[in-house]
Amino acid sequence: xxxxxxxxxxxxxxxxxxxxxxxxxxxxxxxxxxxxxxxxxxxxxxxxxxxxxxxxxxxxxxxxxxxxxxxxxxxxxxxxxxxxxxxxxxxxxxxxxxxxxxxxxxxxxxxxxxxxxxxxxxxxxxxxxxxxxxxxxxxxxxxxxxxxxxxxxxxxxxxxxxxxxxxxxxxxxxxxxxxxxxxxxxxxxxxxxxxxxxxxxxxxxxxxxxxxxxxxxxxxxxxxxxxxxxxxxxxxxxxxxxxxxxxxxxxxxxxxxxxxxxxxxxxxxxxxxxxxxxxxxxxxxxxxxxxxxxxxxxxxxxxxxxxxxxxxxxxxxxxxxxxxxxxxxxxxxxxxxxxxxxxxxxxxxxxxxxxxxxxxxxxxxxxxxxxxxxxxxxxxxxxxxxxxxxxxxxxxxxxxxxxxxxxxxxxxxxxxxxxxxxxxxxxxxxxxxxxxxxxxxxxxxxxxxxxxxxxxxxxxxxxxxxxxxxxxxxxxxxxxxxxxxxxxxxxxxxxxxxxxxxxxxxxxxxxxxxxxxxxxxxxxxxxxxxxxxxxxxxxxxxxxxxxxxxxxxxxxxxxxxxxxxxxxxxxxxxxxxxxxxxxxx
Length: 585
Description:
The chain is of the alpha/beta class. The protein has three domains: about 15-90, Lrp/AsnC effector binding domain/regulation of amino acid metabolism (RAM) domain (Alpha-Beta Plaits), CATH 3.30.70; about 130-460, CATH 3.40.50.200; about 465-580, no CATH class. The chain has 19 helices and 14 strands. It has helices at about 30-40, 65-80, 135-140, 145-150, 210-220, 255-270, 285-295, 370-390, 390-395, 400-410, 435-440, 455-465, 470-475, 475-485, 490-500, 510-525, 530-540, 555-565, 575-580, and strands at about 15-20, 45-50, 55-60, 85-90, 165-170, 185-190, 240-245, 255, 275, 300-305, 320-325, 345-350, 350-355, 365. The protein has a seven-stranded parallel β-sheet, with helices on both faces. α5 (about 210-220) packs parallel to α8 (about 370-390), α14 (about 475-485) packs across α15 and α17 packs antiparallel against α18.
């Protein structure tokens, strides 16, 4: 699980899964079906979802649409006055791809500064000597100290009574986790059956046993039967239980947005107290709705910041979700970790000991990734809930506010690390500290969670919308480096480049982004080659310019490369007309 050599394996393009559709008020299902039939044709199944009136999924067994056709159909759905919102839903591969480092697998240094972004070699490293102790990650997060101080040795194991929803590749009855699996509560959203067993399929881009490995970091009993071999796992919350939810065959292949959203809601409905997501994809309203559904029921949701990707992936990017970056046994940050302002905290993630399913005879091994960092932090959430008593916390703060209270205390109790790799603003408030987390007093009710749940949801919705917030997030690392080099505001080069690509005066850019910004952001975020082309255009854009300028003259070659790259893909006619000759207004 620690090394990928995927340069010769083709990554699948995004696969259209369907649409989400929102109508005003308590609109009837019949009205939604009529709209879909009129604008998409027959064969689409329309169903209500979630707990927000007027929210519908639009699906068929196999979508006949490619990405461009799906976006064009979305524009047609949005065109009616009776439609509040519509968006396509895709299965997408982002995390763990080795082509984020640039053309030919080489990292790029567009700004000439030390590399701030991750690249294609982020997994290709020898485990640190300091990680030889199977419990180094627990020690780094002060977990043994928290156990000793807050959980009596003659009492139940730490984390007892807490259920953790775990959407991943499924499970195996591995000795490190079998006693802590709630198999009867699990579900397979890939095969649509109640058995979430990981099939351990092997081949290019497959990653067998990922779900078993990440689960072991959360709940494996301390000093397992394999300890005599010096290869074992000690989980953070050995008394907690895992609800296994199979949502993907591999964390490198396509991740179904629908499957992950359904798994989150399923876990919330069946009593999960924490949801640990060691997966990452692209923005989508359906996924955001599922996060809100779980959190209104008091579920703490955490997600991996991303591996190798040059921005924090979704759902970690949402402000309501606790985004976790990765560090190593030297208290340095892991070079493969996504980073940026969306990160809340950092936890051990490089060369972490976890359950290993292949080859036979190696029950535990070291693996790297923010997948293991978020698993560690999910274990801390279980310890916190068990220590204070979840029922009492819900009664004190209310279900919807409980996740925000935990997020606030978790961030406040992190340890700031004095090391150059911890670039300010990129790794949250620091390294998680279990002992400090459990020792921190609970806030008084009137002082808890300064950000209201609804305000957090609205902030995340803006991140999805395809406006300037979306692009600022996607290119945060590069924009900061360009601004530092030129002494300009970070948004200036972004505005100029977007205006140039869309052939729009900067004064009208907000209107163009409202029309096609989501599709443009989707294309850039799901294609590393296009992403790098846009980075090059950003680096050459002017720091500022007159409000009616498009910056075309400043970087004609770089901007034209972006346009040609986009036009070589299956764009919607609407976006193609905007960026092609004669586009804009």
